[in-house]
Amino acid sequence: MNANLNRRDFLKVGGGALAVGALLPGGLLADEAPAKPKRTLKKAIMLATVGGKMSLMDKFKLIKECGFAGVEPMGSMDRKEVLAARDAAGLMIPSVCDAVHWAKPLSDANPSVREVGLEGLKTSLQDCKTYGGSSVLLVPAVVNDHVSYADAYTRSQEEIRKAIPLAEELGVKIAIENVWNHFLLSPLEAARYVDEFKSPAVGWHFDVGNIIASGWPEQWIRVLGKRIQKLHIKEYSRKKQNDEGMWKGFDVDYLAGDNNWPAVMKALDEVGYNNWAIAEPAFHPPGLDEAAYLKNVSDKMDKIFAM
Q1: Do residues 143 and 107 touch, judged by C-beta distance below 8 A?
Q2: Which of 191, 198, 221, 295 has CB 3.0 to 4.6 Å from 267, enough for a Cys bridge?
Q3: DSSP state of 99
Q4: Contacts of 67 (CB under 8 A, 6+ apart)
């Protein structure tokens, strides 16, 4: 600093520098800076997780009353009944879950089984279009002691390719889900599997909780990026997994497991995901009736989304 610069001169120069420093591109003052884009995740729930001895209409209405904007039904349901319940409750149906992909997998060695699985996928695509949704959740294959990994890969891709023309015609995406099917075990492989179809009609339905047993969902999100069509929001406890077994890891309430939800939300922001987040709760707090249970899920999701 110039030794001849007195305190008054310094304050004048410093004040000017501060004023300039407070300006942002476009001439905005710091307190006028554009706000960070608001996260706009839309909240839904998987219909199969809603119990109680209620009609479909009453289930839809209760889902709406508990704070959800959407619901994810199974494929092959009565379309007229689903539409009537949707409209009466004022819900949206963003996606449909394929109803036969576990029982009749597209990886099965029997061509007749694969044919049934393919027809189930096509039906779900048509269901989804009818309901105004945009994607169908598909478990693409199941690897086991009589279906090899390599066969599951080639067979499932071959069958899915048969459904792509219909998906493209309907404008409904086939969204592959990561589940405990011993298949597509890394995000890099998952991304490659989708990309090999060379069609915008195939994407990913990312289940956050299903990854915790073997990895970190925020890492998967960054790799899958724009391939992600929908989310399943699920909790998982590594402690319960270690103490009581793999499946017991799901037996935990939202925010009481090992999901690093702030990291998950940050990763979603980074890849620009602002679509549906669909609850698939596997834990029912004891003593709660169905309404209180759904409200608990809805409230916990709001807290997660705000992180």
Answers
A1: yes
A2: 221
A3: S
A4: 43, 295, 298, 299, 302
